[in-house]
Amino acid sequence: MVNAVVLETRNLTIRYGASPAIRDVTISIPEKRITAIIGPSGCGKSTLLRAFNRMNDFIPGASHEGAVLFRDRDLYANDTDPVEVRRRIGMVFQKPNPFPKSVFENVAWGPRINGLARRSELADLVERSLRRAGLWDEVKDRLASNGLSLSGGQQQRLCLARALAMEPEVILLDEPCSALDPVSTARIEDLLFELKERYAMVVVTHNMQQAARLADVTAFFDAGRLVEFGETPQVFTRPREKRTEEYVTGRFG
Ligand SMILES: Nc1ncnc2c1ncn2[C@@H]1O[C@H](COP(=O)(O)OP(=O)(O)O)[C@@H](O)[C@H]1O
Ligand SMILES: [Mg+2]
Question: Counting ligands in written order, which one lies closest to the CA of residue 41?
């Protein structure tokens, strides 16, 4: 893999109570490429994604062993600030979840409370973020409308704009299109493709075609373990592991 590594896990095991959700996972996420995480429901995809920006911290009983590194820094070190981690490593969820506030406020809120933009700069930052999320032209005349009044696809792009406004370095997306229609899905896929010039992205998807279209590299998980990780065409057309082949050809999962 030629690109530099932005995120890395080393022998990472995550448990909820006593039962491990992912086991002994060692994986390197490349810079400025799209990494797809695929695998059957319950195999630990969301758990791994949340480990990358310390969202598992919010789950009572969750614990980990092993390491997560962000540009060689230990994400779970005592002197690492989890709020700063989540600013630099943004997240978009399966169900679009705008705040019940105006379109403008949805995007401006994070930078404002984090002191990232002066009042005079905020409008520019909001516009830039909405443009990058491919939403500006549709909402520029209704910035004061409630974010929840947008369509599902627009809401998901608003959530993307909200993440982009924090000027992150990595964007994690957990099944970002699974609640969207095919047109909105294609829209998001096109956007992610453009965004990889600037950001590393990790996309969890259960849609095999989406992974094949979108991702440069693909990781296949099964029962909490990383089974196979490689360039996407290799994983889909010449899988090394039998289990991967069974999954990508739709024989299970
Ligand atoms: N908050 C939680 N508390 C307890 N168990 C959980 C929690 N979240 C996930 N799990 C369990 O961890 C395993 C992996 O779940 P998850 O990471 O959500 O998988 P996926 O995203 O691949 O469907 C599953 O067995 C699931 O039941
Ligand atoms: Mg999940």
Answer: 1
Confirm or reject: Cβ of 16 under 6 Å from ligand 1. Answer: yes
Task: Name which residue sits closest to atom 3 of ligand 1, judged by CA.
Answer: 16
Inform me whether the pLDDT recorded for 90 exceeds 60. yes
Q: Order of strands across the sheet with 5-16?
A: 19-30, 5-16, 62-70, 73-74
Going by C-beta distance under 8 Å and a sequence separation of 6 or more, which residues neighbour residue 122? 108, 111, 112
For ligand 1, say whether the CB of 93 is within 6 Å of any of its atoms.
no
Q: Is residue 74 part of a domain?
A: yes
Q: Is residue 253 included in any domain, yes or no?
A: no
Total domain count, the chain: 1
pLDDT one-digit tens code per residue, 144-169? 999 999 999 999 999 999 999 999 99
What is the pTM assigned to this prediction? 0.96
pLDDT score of 2 more than 90:
no
